[in-house]
Design the sequence.
């Protein structure tokens, strides 16, 4: 899955500047505290991101990864709705605004954007970083608590990125229902874990019940063919590692792979992929094994061999998350 390099680089340098004022040890300590907080008792009653040091650490450590994951989800969505461009965007639980960067990367131009979050320091920092992106000139950064009282103004696109995992079940349901009531299209991204997948499927079911059509990653709006507990649908986005990453996590690889689950759905007609590659393709001598989720609501393994000529060459280039067969 490819992402605009320039937006990623602009984001990276804006985030790098943020850390300039923060001693490396302090930044690493803030990241470690946040990792522990996220591992602990979420959902919480109060924001985990409490002050600027927390938020700068969160942004520098996690925002490049959530940005790349949301870009991947939005690109798959855009492929399924090629005639559509969001005229407005609301990012709920938007934090420092990773999804606003992703939307402005996938669809050119600027649009009115609203970012809602209960953590004021995250919104303040998001506004600061967004100044580096000319497409994010028209963003309202507003404090709001997700819960049964959440009311969203009508908008074309709602994004919910890495937020459901911080909410109790009734608040997750209230958020998805509010998004479905306000938006023409909803894109939800969660960590690519079995729990993240389960929350994504719960949201997917609610969107379908609200009359939405699934545009991606699924080739259909019927039930997911994965037998619960046996597997989970997730994808992978490559993220360049920053020096802060290397400091906190060690290791020397210049990148890491962010695993994510997602669903993208719309009220209007969509053209989902005929099938999607749901695992990393296995390249063997003279053949490629592709695990596919298909329109017929089933998972299959297809073997593409040299005998298939052009299709074989395409299979060798196919990536986890791509549509199959490739669009020529
Ligand atoms: C893991 S961060 C994700 C931020 C951003 N969407 C991204 O993808 O980078 C989760 C965000 O959800 C916000 N959040 C969690 N619970 C919330 C609630 N009940 N009301 C409003 N915001 C909430 C947090 O403050 C935080 O900014």
Sequence:
């Amino acid at each position: 899955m490819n992402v605009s390099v320039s937006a990623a680089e602009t984001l990276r340098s804006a985030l790098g500047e943020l850390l300039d004022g923060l001693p490396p040890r302090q930044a690493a300590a803030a990241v470690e505290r946040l990792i522990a907080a996220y591992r602990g008792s979420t959902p919480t009653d109060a924001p985990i991101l409490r002050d600027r040091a927390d938020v700068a650490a969160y942004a520098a450590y996690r925002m490049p990864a959530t940005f790349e994951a949301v870009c991947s989800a939005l690109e798959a969505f855009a492929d399924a709705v090629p005639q559509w461009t969001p005229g407005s965007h609301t990012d709920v639980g938007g934090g420092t605004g990773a999804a606003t960067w992703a939307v402005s990367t996938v669809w050119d131009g600027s649009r009115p954007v609203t970012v809602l979050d209960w953590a004021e320091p995250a919104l303040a920092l998001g506004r600061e970083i967004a100044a580096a992106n000319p497409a994010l000139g028209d963003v309202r950064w507003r404090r709001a608590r997700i819960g049964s009282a959440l009311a969203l103004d009508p908008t074309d696109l709602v994004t919910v990125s890495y937020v459901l995992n911080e909410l109790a079940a009734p608040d997750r349901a209230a958020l998805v229902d509010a998004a479905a009531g306000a938006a023409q299209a909803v894109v939800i991204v969660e960590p690519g874990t079995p729990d993240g997948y389960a929350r994504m499927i719960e949201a997917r079911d609610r969107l379908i019940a609200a009359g939405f059509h699934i545009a991606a990653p699924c080739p259909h709006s019927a039930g997911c063919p994965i037998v619960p507990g046996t597997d989970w649908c997730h994808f992978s986005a490559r993220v360049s590692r920053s020096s802060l990453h290397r400091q906190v996590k060690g290791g020397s690889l210049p990148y890491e792979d962010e695993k994510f689950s997602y669903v993208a759905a719309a009220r209007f007609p969509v053209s989902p992929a005929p099938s999607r590659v749901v695992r990393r393709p296995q390249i063997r001598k003279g053949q490629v094994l592709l695990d596919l989720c298909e329109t017929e609501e089933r998972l299959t393994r297809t073997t593409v061999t040299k005998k298939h000529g052009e299709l074989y060459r395409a299979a060798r280039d196919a990536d986890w998350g791509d549509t199959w067969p490739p669009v020529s």
